[in-house]
Amino acid sequence: MTIDLGFWTLQTLNALQLSMLLFLLSVGLTVIFGLMHFVNLAHGALYALGAYFAASLAAVGGYWMGFFLAPVAVAGVGVLLYTGLIQRMRKSGPMAQVLVTFGLIFALLDLTRIFWGDLALAIEVPGILSGRLAFLGVEYPTYRLFIIVLGTAIFAALSLVLSRTQIGAMIRAGVDNDAMAACLGINVERLFFIVFCVGCALAGLAGAVAAPLLSVTPEMGLQILIPTLIVIVIGGLGSLKGAIAGSLIYGFVQTFGAVLAPQLASVLIYALLAAVLVIKPVGLFPAKG
Amino acid sequence: MLELNAINSGYGETQVLYGMSLCAQQGRVLAVLGRNGAGKSTTLKTIMGLLPTRSGEIRFEGKPIAKRSFDIAKAGIAYVPETRDIFPSLSVRENLEIAAKRFGGDGADWTFERVLDLFPRLGERLDNGGAQLSGGEQQMLAIARALLMNPRLLILDEPTEGLAPIIVKLIHDKLQELKAEGLSMVLVEQNFGFATSLADDVVVVSKGQVVWTGSAQDIRADEEAQHKWLGV
Ligand SMILES: Nc1ncnc2c1ncn2[C@@H]1O[C@H](COP(=O)(O)OP(=O)(O)O)[C@@H](O)[C@H]1O
Ligand SMILES: [Mg+2]
């Protein structure tokens, strides 16, 4: 194996691309978790739905239609889930929530099978994002660069909203102490609903942008769930910083592990997870210190 | 102004309040006294909608009180909890703004400038994180935040707990100013002297119900009640 600068650049970009995808998924889940102590294991299934919506919409109106409308459609599914199920389960404790949302994974899995069938779908990358760009001495797929840029932009936008706006302050207050936030006149339930919908939309967006990279199958939501949970456990519950840090750690360990120590790759991330849990059981940047 | 009628309430299976009844009058300060564990904090949490009432009725300004905490806050009750509950992820400024933005419309009594006049110390700390304050500063911030809600009724849970005597004195003077302006208050306290010098009316709570009712002068003169219910 010849290892040169191009190799490092290439793998770094691969790691960043994986990280950004995981970030889009984990940020919604972790903030929902932090704000309302609600465990939504079906978050990965929403990612799969995003990919399916994107594939179907792209077949009708092209890639960008899928890109913009899939998140909206997934947020719509989120609204149904919220009003039909989650709202009623807010006070039923983590065990019931885990069981119900775990069951939901399989219900959604079967629904995607019924609507879209078992065959994998493919989705075309739009013209301007196809091909490769010369970047720091390597030729890198433009589409993957696009994912990196998109993830970074969304991270920047979310941090701006969280740190600078009134609704951001309300969300942080709600994560810190929802009872006190309510005593200050904040409708924490409605806040949760908004955050939940944004989280669903981001999961849908992640599915839509991931769709061209891999084949769209019903199981993709299940496959992404474990990495997403690892990300939020490493990063610490409830915080944006934790989501980005956990995603970067996972992305880099996974990518470099796979090329530098292939025989160890599958256990590396779990070893890291165990190490983080021993040293800092609450994760690296939990919302509640 | 605020009326509790035969309230039963508690935490899950554990009942703590057994027929709690009390009445806070407009423009007056009601002190709620009683030993540790008597149910004082539980009473305030029940008023704020943080604990459900199992039976009985709470009325605020003549109407049944709202169920949800944020509606209760909007109806005009501000709460300073025993643990102060400053948001650690928010700066001091944000802790104040979060109340001011929601309740400080045009012509509001309490403004950002005015609470900083009341507690100048907070003005020096505006950009500090909520977690970086001393106990006294946290208490000032909790009171300032409550005032920015421009409440009609302020309820405070042991505002002097764990504070140095000089800060206790400061809090006392500030609450005295608020009282002089006619702000209605419910004050839960362990500090007998502090409470009775501020209060007009007093109720003493034991085992989840009111066992003594009277004026602040009455209880100061009633050594038997002090001894029996408060161990003073
Ligand atoms: N979160 C809780 N869960 C269960 N029991 C509680 C809780 N908080 C307080 N209690 C119990 O309720 C009783 C009254 O507590 P509290 O209202 O805090 O008393 P006080 O404020 O008068 O000191 C105590 O016996 C206490 O142990
Ligand atoms: Mg108490």
TrEMBL record, chain A:
Q: Which Pfam families match?
A: BPD_transp_2
Residues that span the membrane, as ranges: 20-39, 70-86, 98-123, 143-162, 191-214, 220-240, 252-279
Q: List the GO biological process terms.
A: amino acid transport
Among InterPro entries, the record links this protein to: ABC_transp_permease (IPR001851), BCAA_transport_permease (IPR052157)
Give compartment(s).
Answer: Cell membrane
In the record, what terms sit under GO molecular function? transmembrane transporter activity
Annotated membrane topology is: Multi-pass membrane protein
Q: Which GO terms describe its cellular component?
A: plasma membrane
Q: Which UniProt keywords apply?
A: Amino-acid transport, Cell membrane, Membrane, Transmembrane, Transmembrane helix, Transport
Similarity annotation: Belongs to the binding-protein-dependent transport system permease family. LivHM subfamily.
UniProt protein name: Amino acid/amide ABC transporter membrane protein 1, HAAT family
From TrEMBL, chain B:
Q: Which GO terms describe its molecular function?
A: ATP binding; ATP hydrolysis activity; branched-chain amino acid transmembrane transporter activity
Q: Write out the entry's keywords from A to Z.
A: Amino-acid transport, ATP-binding, Nucleotide-binding, Transport
Q: Does the keyword Transferase apply?
A: no
BP terms from Gene Ontology:
L-amino acid transport
Q: Which InterPro entries match?
A: AAA+_ATPase, ABC_transporter-like_ATP-bd, ABC_transporter-like_CS, BCAA_Transport_ATP-bd_LivF, P-loop_NTPase
Domain ABC transporter span(s) in chain numbering = 2-232
Write down the PROSITE patterns for this protein, in alphabetical order: ABC_TRANSPORTER_1, ABC_TRANSPORTER_2
A Pfam family (short name) is ABC_tran
The regions listed as transmembrane in this protein's record are: none
Q: Which family does it belong to?
A: Belongs to the ABC transporter superfamily.
PANTHER family attached here?
A: ABC TRANSPORTER ATP-BINDING PROTEIN (PTHR43820:SF2), HIGH-AFFINITY BRANCHED-CHAIN AMINO ACID TRANSPORT ATP-BINDING PROTEIN LIVF (PTHR43820)
What is this protein's name? Answer: Amino acid/amide ABC transporter ATP-binding protein 2, HAAT family
Species source reads Roseovarius marisflavi
